[in-house]
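Re: duplicated header lines in exported structure tokens

Our pipeline writes sequence and tokens for each protein into one text file. With two proteins the header for the second block appears twice in some exports. Here is an export where it did not happen, for reference. First protein block:
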Amino acid sequence: MISGIIAIAGGCIAFYRSISLATRDDGKIGSLKFQPKVSIIVPARNEESNIGRLLTSVKKINYPDLEIIVIDDQSTDNTNSIANTFGVNVITGVPKPNGWGGKQWACQQGADAATGDILIFSDADTVHRENSVTDALSFLLKYRLDMMSVAPRHNGQALWEKFSGFFQILLMFAANAFGKQKPGRAYCIGQYIVFTRSAYSKIGGHESVRNDIVEDVPLANRAIKMGLRYHTLIAKHLYSVRMYSDLRSFIAGWRRNFRAGLKDSSPVATLEVTLIIGALLAGGSLSPGLFEILGFLLCVGSMLYLVKRYTTYGAISIIGIPFSLALFCWITGLAVLDSWRKKDVVWKGRAITVR
């Protein structure tokens, strides 16, 4: 009986979250009545395999008053030389001061050099659509926001990536992507963050989160706590991303992000994700009955809808459910172990001391 309750509860949570997304009007963004100057700021450290693809897409963006700034964050590969072939403003970053995370320092240098009224921070592993800036600003101005983040569309290519579709949706559930944004349960993706210039200055820029493991969620938490209007744009047509090209990098990257997430994890989020995992495991029953099966099917159907919306993986992700669950639990365990050991985070060759 307990297994049936777990399965039904997890399935209902997944269904509720997917329905709340389906009823949002993000796709009806509206028109842009005026066009403030926009600065796209790209922090890039050893991104020679990504920077050309990103800049090719950004140069095609259909927006009249746009400046593009690439911060070469002490790269040891060809990032700088490749970026310079695109005719954008490439700034060679200076070494980061003590107490700063590398990405935060690169973003702050880019913001200091930017002249736009709107600042868009975007990672080098993204590919932007031609109308992305217009749509992002339309959403920002429609809701009179000070800061916003945009959910990506994951563009995996390898078989293991296609098997990870349910992993990506579990992340969105854990981060409360579809719920009300509040401190401790804010969804923010560092791959695409938009600020008004005044809001960015008000929160203290990236300097205010300079010694955090990651910058995105801490920035959102800070904005919300200061009373600024923050929201997420859940849209599949603005940009796509392929964060990691191999499984080892995938685990290392999410291990770092999960470690950061432990600081802001909510008991409610933990309970929700646990119940959803329980539903995907049919309540943990070795001989599932009607309720376990119903909960499983409701959860899988709801999550598959989200997989199709936010990834290019499709129904093959169903086959990868065991892989996604094992990956999610394994990375969570590694992050908890790192936190317990108070281990420094090492990312792109640089250590971040966690306090």
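Second protein block, exported in the same file:
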Amino acid sequence: MEQDPTVIALGEDLGRGGVFGQYRDAQGAPLAQRFGPGRIIDTPISEATIVGAAVGMALAGCRPVVELRVVDFALCAIDEVVNQAAKNRYMFGGQGRVPVVLRMPIGIWSASAAQHSQSLEAWFAHIPGLVVVAPGTPADNHGLLLAALQSGDPVVYMEHKELWGTPGAVTPGAVVPLGKARVARPGGDVTIVSWSRQLQACEQAAEQLAAQGVQAELIDLRTIWPWDKDAVLASAARTGRLLVVHEAVQVAGFGAEIAATVAEHTGAKVARLGAPRIPVGYAPTLEAQARVSAEQIVAATQRLLQR
């Protein structure tokens, strides 16, 4: 925002720094104190209005950052996202661009129940015209957000609700390219692909597998669309086995797209692991049933190795 006066932010709770504190500076002060209410805009509780206004701002030359608090609330603005932001460039022959960043935090939010704990990245990956990003580390969140702000297209930016407090080294100004995966852990026995917070459980599983003599190559996809097919295909072809793991419901999840692509282009054996097709419960015991644990990932990997 300091470098580009066309970057503005709008959404609920921005004046106080955002529900997760993501609109505060390094000293903890709300960004509204630095940039004023004309660039950090507190809006009414109307997601359709927020996104509709942002699309208009983007077409007029601004680079708006839309805060939708959680992805679950973005469903109130699905027409503005899917039928307006995503399609404008195509329908008007490139005369208009919609460089808007739509922040939609995803994932299970502890003790927040079914309407605040969804992972809907596959929904938006299905829509032509949208870029979909899902960072899993502080450094990637910093670098991918810079890349999203520089993109000329609408970016559905999906940070995880339970990653906001995660500390980590960040290089100021370092841009992480969209569409490029990261090898989080090298290995030669099996390829595990994941993204966002689920990467943490995969890292734990990889440690447990290593203790059993299995070296898993862990790939952090980082961008859901475009996704890094070259990196995944090369790894799966080398290891001969692929397991895709995500926090989202397994049925029709984006893991199915990855698994199908690898099956079509390599001889690797493929499997996927996601959440059961149930709403996320409020009670801790019910919520736990919707989480994909490191132990489940280890078991799925072992089954894949035995095939």
